[in-house]
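Possible race condition, two jobs.
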Amino acid sequence: MPVKVSSAKVAAARDTLASLVTSKDVKAKQQQEGQLKYIKGYSANTIEQVKHHIANDTLGRLLLNRYPRIHDIRTDKALYDYAMGYKQAYLKQSDPLSKVIFDEKISLSHQALGLHTYANRVQGSKVKAKNEIRISSKLKFIPEPLLRMVVVHELAHLREKEHNKAFYQLCEYMTADYHQLELDLRLLLTCIELGKSPY
């Protein structure tokens, strides 16, 4: 004997099935998370604003309005001189820098802010510290304030190895709008991820 099912139960079952997540939904969510990976540590409100700009294709325009021009630092020597200007102004007593270069090997997705390396070497009876800053060569064509933020970030590691309160205070000491610049760089990286860099 067949079981009779009311039309209300059939409709409820259909609605339940329709609300299940499909593989297409999962892929769309993963794609959106990939687009937002640079800002995932920010507040829900900030993330919603960024989503709005992405949906309306206005994120690049926002950055272009804030930073209409890119910097003209193209060589490793120019980058070294630029970084040394900040070091001399704010970190005279810190360890010396032996090298500051643009590096083709640094991937924006893994080391978006560059790389600071240091090594102690024994030379005779003395121990010498060697500090280097490497910045992704992809950052050659960004606005100067955003490059400044990366340089300041890496210089701060001369004194503070960890990303702690003292580290961020030092960054703010060298450039007062550090946190805004970091957010804006992350917004630019999001644009690059979307294939829509304004620069």
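Job #2 (started ~2 s after job #1):
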Amino acid sequence: MLRAFACSSYTAPDFSDEKLRSIVSQSATFNRMAGVTGAMLVDGTRFFQYIEGPSDGLEAVIRRIEQSRSHRLMSPLLDAPIAQRAVPYWAMTRLDTGQTVVSGLINAGWDEFGQRSVAHSPGMELLCSVLRPHFPVANASD
């Protein structure tokens, strides 16, 4: 069974772009081994992270996120089963956005009080609309 997890957090005081590049690279390597895909959106002071994959792999990645000293005040926004991946293209990718995008994702409805599937929640629809322009383009000859 696939599961999705999303959270927000604030960067640590000594955070740098070099550190962020290292985190994304190390996360991609670890996530590949765990069968997890995801995206990290950054506005300069806050993170929004979305990851998805098998429950055991996701648990390992969530533990790494919780133990990281690169951020603080982590707030889970979503932890739910999903039927299929929304971001199958990246083990981890980084997208620098403005505060409006990150705030919108953090404040979007992710569970709609259990009334909708995650795939059709306002949060997921917003996330997909932000990420879709960055999805790899299929080769016309494929």
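The radius of gyration is 15 Å.
Logs attached separately.
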